[in-house]
């Protein structure tokens, strides 16, 4: 076959290389998900009695140490990724719940209820506390500073609709307050009740 040099076809080597990279990326994403899911389950089971080792996590995931350290430089980095993964999931859940409301006050209520539900639900509370304990103490509010900021951005639009002069700052303050209160419940093993939830909602809307 004679190639038309004036109209060259795409380089086959580059096409195959790109396809291989895409396949490898999908495989690596699957590895990370298996490691995260296995680590979360082990930590949930162990609670605050013991910390799963890297060897325990890779065994539960059916992977190797090489696979673990391919994605995470340390156990601390792995725990940080677990916290980030949980935060992203919670943010998606909160956005979904807020989307059920047209009224900005109702959206803020949904946000508060969703955050506090992490401490109200026994299984969620034990999982979250275990992850925090494996990294830092569940009483260390700095461990939740990053997540609270990410979650709080969902409040900016409804707060702006309510006429707040600085909705970004107000959202950050509400985020730190509510996530901090949730963290206190996790630390003490307590559950927020309806009266407390209503009081917090009223505070956020005041």
| Helix content estimate | over 70%
Largest sheet: none
Compute the average pLDDT. 85
The unreliable regions are: 137-142
What assembly state would you assign to the polypeptide chains in this entry? single chain
Q: What is the number of helices?
A: 10
Shape: flat
Taken in chain order, the helices and strands follow as HHHHHHHHHH
Share in β-strands: under 5%
Any idea how many domains?
Answer: 2
Radius of gyration, in Å, reads 22 Å
Structural class: mainly alpha
List the helices and strands and how they pair.
Layout (H helix, E strand, L loop, with lengths): L11 H35 L7 H8 L3 H7 L3 H24 L5 H17 L1 H14 L9 H8 L3 H6 L5 H22 L5 H12 L1
Helix pairs in contact: 1-2, 1-6, 4-5, 4-6, 5-6, 5-9, 5-10, 7-9
Please, could you describe this protein's structure?
The chain has ten helices and no strands. It is mostly helical and 206 residues long. It folds into two domains: 11-72; 75-206. The chain is flat. The model is unreliable at 137-142 (pLDDT under 50).
Short descriptors:
206 residues; mainly alpha; 2 domains; 10 helices; flat
Short description:
The protein has about 210 residues and is an all-alpha fold.
């Amino acid at each position: 076959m004679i190639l038309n040099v004036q109209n060259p076809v795409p380089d086959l080597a580059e096409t195959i290389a790109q396809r291989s990279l895409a396949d490898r990326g999908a495989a690596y994403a699957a590895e990370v998900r298996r490691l995260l899911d296995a680590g979360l389950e082990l930590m949930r089971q162990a609670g605050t009695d013991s910390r799963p080792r890297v060897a325990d996590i890779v065994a539960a995931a059916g992977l190797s140490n090489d696979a673990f350290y391919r994605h995470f430089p340390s156990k601390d980095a792995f725990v940080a990724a677990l916290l980030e993964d949980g935060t992203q999931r919670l943010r998606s859940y909160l956005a979904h719940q807020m989307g059920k409301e047209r009224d900005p006050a109702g959206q803020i209520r949904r946000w508060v209820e969703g955050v506090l539900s992490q401490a109200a639900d026994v299984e969620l509370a034990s999982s979250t506390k275990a992850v925090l304990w494996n990294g830092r103490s569940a009483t260390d509010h700095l461990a939740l500073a990053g997540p609270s900021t990410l979650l709080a951005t969902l409040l900016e639009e409804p707060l702006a609709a309510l006429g707040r002069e600085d909705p970004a700052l107000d959202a950050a303050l509400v985020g730190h307050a509510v996530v901090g209160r949730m963290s206190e419940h996790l630390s003490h093993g307590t559950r927020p009740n309806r009266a407390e939830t209503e009081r917090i909602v009223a505070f956020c809307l005041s």
